[in-house]
Amino acid sequence: MKTKLFKLALGAALVSAAAFAHAGNITVKGSDTMVILAQKWAEVYMGKNAGVKIQVTGGGSGVGLGALQNNQTDIANASRPIKPAEISACIKSFNKKPREYKVCLDGLSVYVNVANPLTELSLEQLEKIFTGKVKNWKEVGGQDLPITVMSRENSSGTYEFFKEHVLKGQDFAASAQTMAGTAAVLQSLSQEPKAIGYGGAAYGLKGAKALKIKKDDSSPAIEATEATVLNGTYPIWRYLNVYLNPEKDKGEIAAYLNWVRSDEGQKIVKDIGYYPLPENLREKSEK
Question: What is the domain extent for residue 172?
Answer without folding.
Answer: 107-230
